[in-house]
Amino acid sequence: MKIENEPKLISPIQDFLEHLHQQCAANDDGDVATYIPELAKADPSWFGICIVTANGAVYEVGDTRQDFTIQSISKPFVYGLALEDNGRAATLERVGVEPTGDAFNSISLDPGTGRPRNPMINAGAIATAGLIAGKTPASRFKRILETFSLYAGRPLKVDHTVYLSESETGHRNRAIGHMLRNFDKLTGDPAPTTEIYFQQCSISVNCRDLGIMAATLANHGVNPLTGKQALRGEYVESVLSVMGTCGMYDYAGEWLYHVGIPAKSGVSGGVLAVLPGQLGIGVFSPRLDAHGNSVRGIRVCQELSRHLDLHLFNRPVAGKSTIRLRFTGADFNSSHVRTPEESRTLRELAKAINVYQLQGHLAFATMEPVVRDILEQAEATTYLILDLKRVLSLNESAGHLLHSLVGKLHGLEKTVLFTHSDHLPLLRRMMKKKLAGKYAELFTTFPDNDLALEWCEERLLENTRYARAANFRAKPADYLLFNNFSRGELELIQPLLQPRSFKRGQNIISAGTDAQEVFFLARGSVSVFLPGEGGRRLATFSPGMSFGEMAFIDGARRSADIVADTEVECHLLTLEDFQKFGKTHPALKIKLLEQLCLDLTGKLRKANRELTVFE
Amino acid sequence: MKIENEPKLISPIQDFLEHLHQQCAANDDGDVATYIPELAKADPSWFGICIVTANGAVYEVGDTRQDFTIQSISKPFVYGLALEDNGRAATLERVGVEPTGDAFNSISLDPGTGRPRNPMINAGAIATAGLIAGKTPASRFKRILETFSLYAGRPLKVDHTVYLSESETGHRNRAIGHMLRNFDKLTGDPAPTTEIYFQQCSISVNCRDLGIMAATLANHGVNPLTGKQALRGEYVESVLSVMGTCGMYDYAGEWLYHVGIPAKSGVSGGVLAVLPGQLGIGVFSPRLDAHGNSVRGIRVCQELSRHLDLHLFNRPVAGKSTIRLRFTGADFNSSHVRTPEESRTLRELAKAINVYQLQGHLAFATMEPVVRDILEQAEATTYLILDLKRVLSLNESAGHLLHSLVGKLHGLEKTVLFTHSDHLPLLRRMMKKKLAGKYAELFTTFPDNDLALEWCEERLLENTRYARAANFRAKPADYLLFNNFSRGELELIQPLLQPRSFKRGQNIISAGTDAQEVFFLARGSVSVFLPGEGGRRLATFSPGMSFGEMAFIDGARRSADIVADTEVECHLLTLEDFQKFGKTHPALKIKLLEQLCLDLTGKLRKANRELTVFE
């Protein structure tokens, strides 16, 4: 973390971890494992804690870079690879998923089938190692090592001395291998598989690796630091399930009860815990309790669970915040500037446009209140705009609900429009697939709300008396700024209006230039854009309206680009002519300024009204 | 649900449930329990499904109003009451929490201690019933029945015939009672406790009740339909933990693996499943499999889990969406209207005001990215405004982080301000307690962002040359609208300016009245409020500024109330005088209108800029 280099700005999370480390370091209970000589060499005072969030922030304290062998913590990761290689059904035929309540080295084969009860006991782990694909034992183990390296985000190696020690003393595990072969839960010679198992236990990691490996499981199998996939997302829940019920040997029930985070421990003193979607925890301290779990490791996880409220079964109530904002087209218009009559009409009609800004993760529980709300509002809705800009993810369940909703509302002659949906390819796939044939066109998307709102407004105005022909041409008498000019007065100013025409796509005003004139639009349509490629549209004008008057008034440089949307005809009035005209016809200048004030006041009232939508 | 009455608007969720019901109804596997004669009378075709969200939406299909006895599904609810009566430690002394992998009627006492392995097997449930407080067996059972009624949201009753049948045939359970007494896991005569156990199993419920009871656990122990607390929130995770590891008899491991939702089944055919924070599921179908679980009940839960993506270990990544919006005081000002010089100064200085709008549930994983972002921005920040308006909940862990952050930033001479924090009493409690003594004043709160922004702006302006004395008095020459008037011109208009003074708190303009004048503020401060009690502040003006000009221009009625914040002196100019003046001094009217256009243009530019903050 960058902030480590700025002593004044140490994160309170770092402070908390250091305090916790200090507190738990005082506990000297338990003993280092001695069942193989190499493990007995560990320094009992080693102690590291590492937390890694599913977004990839790493917090670590103590001996987090001290190497040790992964031991039983290898089991869930190899189980994940076995699932990828064989699928769930074939894997379950070889190894069960029931907790035993027995110790780690129990043989625990089902009396009838000879199937090991679960993959976290040695028998199950050896059967799992037998499921890893590969032509030779060496290539099978190579795949395991590569997978572990993906989880850790760095190339891992085997501690060869520990491996030899494991292999030399592993008679009980060899017995298990033969027993599994006897029940056909291993194919061929069990010896190479037992050796693979000894090797996977001897992979050398450090406490930081454990934290990152845990965070990879928390992040749907994707290492949050490297962005690389270590396990297909669909199998993560299965790996976590066996950790949840069988991960802490015969302490699994109490663990879930008191800590409530799927975890796995190893005899070398490591504990790895995963809070799905949130964070991974790695702890390393070699002193073990009678169950074979790290004393400090358990203590740290208990404290973290309690202080950080991590218990998996204590989750806040979902769904209340999926709707970020809801407003109607009457509260907030598109940037298509309307005539006063159109505006008044839309303030009534556009209540039938309902905009929902959704946010967060769309899943069943978060979408249910949205669907309910939409159905409750459906009667008053003609157009439903679903803005997905702030939606972080969408699962199939939410996709099904949205699809059903579109069909249902279509049946009631209501139209659903999606905006900002490009980052959710699953939605498009599901909609296209499920709405195939005559409904294919029902998946209507717009890049942003503004265009969607405009589309709806156009349809609402289409059937009113304000609907104009596409090629409507405004005469100077129609120009809104001359609204209170008499025919005679119009004749006075008309000679100053210089006709101009522009081609579709042509720039009429460029940001940064000096403002020397105001434009009156006679035919076609122009739009105002923020400067720069892909700049946001600020406004669209139609015949009769004027544009460019803001810079004309305050003498500032043009702040936006104005572009012809179509073939455009307009008149311009230069600042110079206007000022001369004002001197000779002050009463008309006053009329014009009054009309301008009126126009600006209207725009300001609208902007202020729209600002309240966001409060 | 209201929508049930509007056939066209059936929720897609209801459609899905009906489809699922139809699909699973085709399965006739399994047999009705016969171990007591009364259960054998059940109609094997009964089949109901009910989903209740943690927000209280109910979806049901099939035989959801058919009564049946709750049987083993009573166990987790009685366990919750035992936890409330005895606390966790004393309860754990009597009953463990380890899964057994054994069948429901196994005795499974720990060889050494005689402690039943968990509260979901009969032995554990009887020991749990022994923990319920009360003077007499009748009053102990009455408390159980009342608690169950709170969960269901309606008064429940015992099915007396079933109870008699249970009691008549319950020899095995009586044997267990005596065995528990032998190990001192029950006190006194075991017989009354065994009878309580028979009664709790005989409580009559329907499938809808199961759904609501499950949703109550999903909603932290509060019935989402009645709002009444059935179980203290702190014990919910413990009840769900034993359901998670031991709830489905010897099928618990596979259940968590395949369905991934804590659940409990009963021999009468009920299944109750709880997705914490999200929803509760109740299913009823009396045909059982060899484990004693409802065949269709399991099938329905599997399908729901798969189609609605409910597996507890498959959660989206948290924390990315906690920051709803971040902006600086330069992007968005308080509604305190500034002079052009002040505005220019603030556009630079106010970059040091950093506003974070937070949203959703504040917990460790959701706050971690916020804390990190704040620390990364800390160098450029002098004032940090944390807007908690859209924060739905805050847990202790988030409270600790916020507290540490305030202290840390204070050490760097930075100020943290909280807005909209009244709905989070835990935050206030934690801040007051932890910041006791010299830091007590560090918990600075404002009712809204506008006031907090204004407070910061005032402090930033304090040290600039634009700082004015509190009693500064503007002369007509200082009035911004007369900005380009010469001294001689000022003398011409000055006679039309009528002095007025107002007391602090007095209404200067009332919404809804006709606009006949524009005001010029000479001394003091006035604020514009939306009409109505507690109306939002729209603007605050200081000496030299004018107000009331918008309605003055467009002739609309006053849209807001304007109130004197202090003793106020001002001038007013009536519409009538202004129009007369315009006729005689058109050049001055033009100057005034030009200045007004300039002022409106400035305000419109600001409003448009502020609108982009929310895009």
What does this structure look like?
The structure is a homodimer of 615-residue chains. Chain A is α+β, with helices and mostly antiparallel strands and 615 residues long. Chain A folds into 3 domains: 2-307, Beta-lactamase (3-Layer(aba) Sandwich), CATH 3.40.710; 323-462, STAS domain (Transcription Regulator spoIIAA, 2-Layer Sandwich); 476-613, Jelly Rolls (Sandwich), CATH 2.60.120.10. The first copy, chain A, contains 21 helices and 23 strands. A 5-stranded antiparallel sheet of chain A has the order 3-2-9-8-7. In chain A, strands 11-12-13-14-15 form a 5-stranded mixed sheet, sandwiched between helices. A 4-stranded antiparallel sheet of chain A has the order 16-23-18-21. In chain A, a hairpin with a 7-residue loop joins strand 19 (526-529) and strand 20 (537-541). The first copy, chain A, is elongated and about 110 Å long. The two termini of chain A are 35 Å apart. Mean pLDDT of chain A is 90; it is low at 1-6.
Summarize the structure.
2 copies of one chain form a homodimer. With 615 residues, chain A is α+β, with helices and mostly antiparallel strands. Chain A has 3 domains: 2-307, 3-Layer(aba) Sandwich (Beta-lactamase), CATH 3.40.710.10; 323-462, 2-Layer Sandwich (Transcription Regulator spoIIAA), CATH 3.30.750; 476-613, Jelly Rolls, CATH 2.60.120.
